Amino acid sequence: MNQVHPVAIGLVGAGGFGEFCLDAFAAMPEAKIAAVADVDRSRAQGLATKFKATAYFDIESFLRDPAVDVVALNTPPFLHGSQGLLALAAGKHLFCEKPLAITAEDGRRMIDLAASKSLSLTVNYVMRHNPFWAAAAELRRSGVLGPLLHLDLVNHAAGLSLPPQHWFWDESKSGGIWIEHGVHFFDAFAWVSGETGRVISSQQFRRTDGAVDRVEALLQYGRAGGHCYHAFDQSALTEQTTVRLTFENAYLTLREWVPTTLELLTTVARDKWETMLPGQVEYTRRDDGRTFARARAAGNKSEVYRQCVQSGMRQLIASARETSGANGLSATGEAALSSLQTAIDARRRAVELDRSP
Known about the structure:
This protein has helices spanning 16-26, 41-50, 59-63, 80-89, 104-116, 131-142, 171-174, 177-193, 301-320, 333-355; strands spanning 7-12, 31-37, 54-56, 70-73, 93-96, 121-123, 148-156, 197-206, 212-221, 224-231, 240-247, 250-255, 261-266, 280-285, 291-296. By secondary structure, the protein is of the alpha/beta class. The protein has a nine-stranded mixed beta sheet, covered by helices on one side. It has a six-stranded parallel beta sheet with strand order 3-2-1-4-5-6, with helices on both faces. Helix 1 links the parallel strand 1 (7-12) and strand 2 (31-37). The model has no long low-confidence stretch (mean pLDDT 95).
């Protein structure tokens, strides 16, 4: 692959988020949009026209295009395994939307096929490219706040915006909440803690039409406890996501599904950790002697999200060009498979409890 010319990206799955990703990729000097594929001909043609690319209406024709170097896979989760394997078999590097697949078997096949063909594979785990999540991970690794004791996620998502017939509610297509969405946070918790998550217990709740709209689990990350609650029962107006990390000598809070702030309350002297905080930081010395710091991004949520997506693609391009190799990827295939397995375990335990008398 020529290291001077932009890498050609072809996107499969021209929905709203697909268009968001294309806008992000098109702004990268190291990338260009070569092709857009979707079974919805109007969407494929419209976005292809917008980005001066070729439109395709089936993945087989799309993958025969020699101009495509990297496939950005943005289809529903149940297609990731089969379409990801087709892309890799065709010799394309793969930027896969989460989850890697909905079965561990397909995920393993994708990783092995990529390795056998010397292709780069990553999953769009935007948390790994978010500066505030990255700061949390660095603070844990540094040890300056003491050991990490607990990780907590409470995610109230805008499920009310999804009609009852949307594929999200069909677990054969989405994998369910744990697999479609929970993998993001299972991966982020594993990354921050440096430990693989182990599911202790899990439960799920159904709304009146039978669809699972809330799930909850207790986990263990090494010597740290973990808790995750996902509810898809809110509107865009009332959705809210909060992550709290408890250290021996500090509390750290991330807000929003794509955090744009980090809050830290600690007894540890400021000079031990202040260089690890990103963005613009405000400090308050409290009467009890503790320091409260609030770091915030210069841009808004959409801008931060866009930068996270670009960072993931930038790493994949660098890996594909062999400037940094597979070790340069934050979200490796193995990491994606590990978080997928945690999600599968959480779903299995919830289903078992649901079926018990």
